[in-house]
Amino acid sequence: MKVLVVEDNADLARNIQEYLLHEGYVCEWSPTFEKSQEKLISFHYDCIVLDIMLPDGNGLDLLNFIKAEKIKSNVLIISAKNSLDDKIHGLDLGADDYLTKPFHLSELNARLKAIYRRNALEGDHTVSYNEIVLNTTSMEASVNDVLLDLTKKEFDLLLYFLINKNRILTRQSLAEHLWGDYTDNLSNFDFVYQHVKNLRKKISAANGKDYIGTVYGIGYKFDTNIT
Predict the structure, then answer these.
(1) Are 74 and 48 a contacting pair, CB within 8 Å?
(2) d(CA 98, CA 79)
(3) Taking burial as the number of CB atoms within 10 A of a residue's CB, which of 39, 84, 106, 184 is the most buried?
(4) What's the average model confidence in pLDDT over 148-154?
(5) CA 30 vs CA 38, 61, 91, 126, 172: distances in Å
């Protein structure tokens, strides 16, 4: 899962980022309203952890921006304010959940997983297509009941393909989803090719069909028309 933390408190943001990175997320941080807008226009995030009080604006205004621009990201509001009005207002604007500071990072993690499971995975722990089955809780993938020996990035890559079946995914979008800000200064995305190649090889070794096709000059597509 790729997460953007919008929080002006550097210590809290760093703690959240380090914890989520340790849990296997791709996690980026933005301390201001303006920088957050720039990131949301340029990149896709599965979930946004959004503080209400920002030094140059209001988090609820950023939530309005997200909805107005039809940005398809889930939103978890965090705020020191425990006012019922703030909570209701945020949820009315389209936020998926609300967490009051201070909170345990383990609870934040659980809320993010629940939001992602509810919205992207239709409430289930497993994602499957024909002979391919992924368990997002145990982080295990199997093909024809054969457990695959996947790296964390390969598992995330396969999950991303399954969630986006029949969509053309550019090499850049795959890189950004799996590595986030670390791809900003790269001259090419050849490493994506290597990860896709390894994933296809492991699926094939378990007698799985080669659903992941190359769209030359663009990227890849998980093609459900493969028979």
Answers:
(1) yes
(2) 8
(3) 39
(4) 91
(5) 10, 15, 22, 31, 21
